[in-house]
Amino acid sequence: MCNLYRMTKSDGEVAKWFDAVNKASGSNTAEHIWPGYPGLVVAAGELRPMSWGFPLVMKSKRTGEPLKPKPVNNARTDKLDGFFWKSSFEKRRCLIPLSAWAEAEGPKGAKTRTWLSLADVDLFAVAGVYRDSDEFGPCYSMVMTSAAGAAAEVHDRMPVILRSDDYASWQSGDPSEAKELCRPYEGNIFLARTSDSWT
After folding, report:
1. Cα–Cα distance measured from residue 47 to residue 37, given in angstroms and rounded to the nearest whole number
2. Rounded CA gap, 10 and 123, in Å?
3. Which helix (H) or strand (E) holds 129?
4. How many angstroms separate the CA atoms of 171 and 92, rounded?
5. Are the C-beta atoms of 52 and 33 separated by less than 8 Å?
6. Residue 81's pLDDT is what?
7. 150-162: average pLDDT
8. Is the dihedral of CA 30, 34, 38, 40 positive or negative?
9. Which of 80, 88, 114, 184 is the most exposed place for a label (fewest CB within 10 A)?
10. Torsions phi, psi of 64, nearest 5?
11. SS3 label, residue 60
């Protein structure tokens, strides 16, 4: 599952790329985005900053008191009809712009970052869902499907990568049409293994 991605373009470049109204100017987003931190999404024709991850509020087994919310940053394709995701999938789908995503590889305690990107572009979009929350404000999650090609060398799942022709269908098509887009990417994926520690 994706727990780190990179976005190397400015908000102005991203807004132009996706023909979106830039509502993110001056937003505080980093090049490397981790769960619980802000990233940029294209939603309803606007480029907007949101927090990466839907809040999951759990209670302490010991005290029964609510714990700090955990950001759930990946939505599995086979779970989109479940209670946690259904309303967002049916009504609020977005594009998540990125340049690459990372997976952890190696033995426990010594995992390193492997970056995955598209071989022929330096900015692309993956499928996302979004909503407002009391805990994090506007937030989004990345939709995941089975891994294919080079991506399957490092993990059994990967983000749903969208072709530009499918952007409109993902955002505004009916749920059955959007579900058809939740499939492994058939194009070339470039792997860049590094010695950088995962943590």
Report:
1. 16
2. 11
3. strand 124-131
4. 7
5. yes
6. 96
7. 96
8. positive
9. 184
10. 80, 0
11. coil
Q: What is the pLDDT of residues 102-121, one digit of tens each?
A: 999 999 989 999 999 998 89
pTM for this prediction: 0.95
How far is it, in rounded angstroms, from Cα 186 to Cα 69?
36
Q: Which residue has the higher pLDDT, 80 or 62?
A: 80
CB-CB contact of 77 with 182 (8 Å): yes
pLDDT of 26 reads 81
Greatest Cα pair distance, the chain, in angstroms, is 52
Token representation of residue 114: 């492997």
Q: How far apart are CA 73 and CA 143, in angstroms?
A: 9
pLDDT at 1 over 80: no
**Of the candidates 91, 94, 85, which has an alpha carbon nearest to the alpha carbon of residue 49?**
94
| Amino acid identity for residue 33 in this structure | I
In the predicted model, what is the mean pLDDT of the chain? 95
Q: How many angstroms separate the Cα of 111 from the Cα of each of 5, 70, 158, 184, 191?
A: 16, 22, 18, 25, 16
Strand residues in 36-109 grouped as ranges (E) = 38-43, 46-52, 54-56, 70-72, 74-76, 93-98, 100-105
